[in-house]
Amino acid sequence: MNFEGGDFVFVALSDQDFKLQPVQISQKSESWVGIRKDDSINQYKIVQKGAYGLLMALKNKEE
Known about the structure:
Blueprint: E1 2-3, E2 6-12, E3 18-22, E4 24-28, E5 33-36, E6 45-46, H1 51-62
Antiparallel strand pairs: 1-2, 2-3, 2-6, 4-5
């Protein structure tokens, strides 16, 4: 997802704990986005559904 000028994914630290992680986009189409995985996210599962809801929860928490 693009947020505040950067590209990010949410990674799952546990079943209930998530972290917003910056990524580099490698390829894009209308239905998918390819990211370059690196050591900072290789050990985590990337959230594929519900990322927008997590982002809204994170923004509400910050305010």
